[in-house]
Amino acid sequence: MYSTCLFCHRPLGANDLIERFPVGRRLAFDAVKGRLWVICPSCHRWNLTPLEELAWRTRIEGSLGLPERERLGPVEGFQEVYRNGLKALGTDFASVSSVEQDERLRTNKVFTAMLYAHACQGMYGAPEYGGNQGEVGWKNIDFAGDVQPRGYTDAEVSQRD
Fold it and tell me: Could you say which residues of the chain have pLDDT below 50?
């Protein structure tokens, strides 16, 4: 479990009031994301709490047989889904016909759904998160991109193109 800020690497302090959150003197709850954060007293950046970190590690790595990650049963993480999915596609995937490629993708619905979702996130997500380089995805669909803080006028959102 971490005890220093992920950004400035200074101590987050101890929390003696909330038993399940021993790290961090200042906590914040983001109601929109449903997420609890530890606020660094030095740089004021928000860090995931130990419980949130555990949840993300479980999503990415899976439960790995660890009791603290298997409260609701075993979990197959993103890494395992990708490892098994790519193995099932076969080393010759790129050289087989498109019909055969489609058939192989259809046999693993979990992998294909995750691959599709992550490809869309990478192609159409905000560039500051690492995908959509040069806003190529947005340009492809004629999306103006992030228009904040200007926003849209009433006329722009109430009329058809």
Answer: none
